Structure formats: structure tokens, C-alpha cells
Known about the structure:
By secondary structure, this protein is mainly α. 79% of the residues lie in helices and 0% in strands. Helix 8 (155-171) runs antiparallel to helix 9 and helix 9 (176-194) packs antiparallel against helix 10 (199-228). The longest helix is centred in the middle third of the chain and has 30 residues, at 119-148.
Amino acid sequence: MNxxxxxxxxxxxxxxxxxxxxxxxxxxxxxVFVLAVYAVILFLLxxxxxxxxxxxxxxxxxxxxxxxxxxxxxxxxxxxxxxxxSHLIVGLDLxxxxxxxxxxxxxxxxxxxxxxxxxxxxxxxxxxTLLASTLEEIIFRAYILLAILPIWSHPIxxxxxxxxxxxxxxxxxxxxxxxxxxxxxxIALCLSIVAGLSIYFVAAMHILVNLNNLFVIPILYxxxxxxxx
Length: 229
């Protein structure tokens, strides 16, 4: 039995459980929750300044993430960055597999149980990725990162802390090395915000990383390796 099949059976996870209408409903509910949280923040800020001075500062930084005049340019830059970083991660993953003397084909296919297989699963995977990636950037990079940045003497500590939490939340189904790669991607996303890039850049970058991992990389690398053997 293939290693990814063994892991799928062990975790009782299959693509039809990840890419379906119910998961999309969960993402829509999350979007409503995110908007509700922002509505509460606006209510707290209305007509009161001194009691929520820190919240006012956070809100100013939050608004700045959306107020870039060249949002279309940052989306384009994010698409390029997301594509490049996803292929860089594959290169690092192949390097690790080679150093550890793994069967490269099995190594590349170890998380196949996450990939959509049917046309229906692929449609849901595409839609869920667009919404979920955007929501995660708002929650993690806009809400949380902007809130914890002022706490630390240097931004890198906030970046590392949030990236560790982000990776652990996402890596439970994918194994140790996938968690490491998610950690590195999160660092890149956080540093983009610290560098002054907009929410449009990080959302586009996040979306392209996920879309490449789901649809492009399996075709470019997995099948190529299979044909070479």
C-alpha cells in the first residue's frame, strides 16, 4: 500500500471530506464571523478614543492594508510571488527527500490524500481556496499580526510566533516537513505586511501557493517523476 494511502487510512481523511459544499458553508460562516468581529470593533471605537487608544492604532493600520491605490499591481505581484515560492518549496522538499535518501516518488506523493480527484472536488477546491486563503490573511495577517506587532521590541518575534501558530494549525494533516514549509511561507507573508505591502499582495500570494500545490505542482512534478521511472 502506498504511504499516502496508509496515512489517509490512519487519519481517516479523504479528498471528498475536504472539498465539498459543507466545507464551503463553513468558510462562508467564517467570513460572516470575521465581519461580525469587525462590526464589534467599529462599535467599540465609535465615539470613544481614550479607552481604546491601542484599538484605534490597530484600526488605522488595518485600514492602511486596504487603502493602497495600486491594488491591482500588488495582486499581480502577489500572484508572481506565490507561484515562485510554491516552486521553491518543492525544490527544498525534493532536497530534503534526497538528503534523507527517500524514494522520491513516494516522498512527493505522501500528501496525495489532500488533492481533489473528481471534477466536483476540483471545483470546490478552487472556490474554497479563494475564500479560505483570503479569510486566513485577514484573520492572521490583518487581525492578529497587526495586534501583536506593538507588543514586541522587534517585529521578527511577532512574525515567528504567529507563523509557528499558523503552521501548527495547518500542518496536523500533512506531516512534519509540510509543517516546516507552511511555517516558512507564513514568515514570507508576515514579512510582506511588515514591509508595508497590502492585504491584496498577501492574499494573492497565499491563494497562488495553495492553487499551485493543488493543481499545478502535481502535474509538473508528480507525473514527471512517475514517467521517469
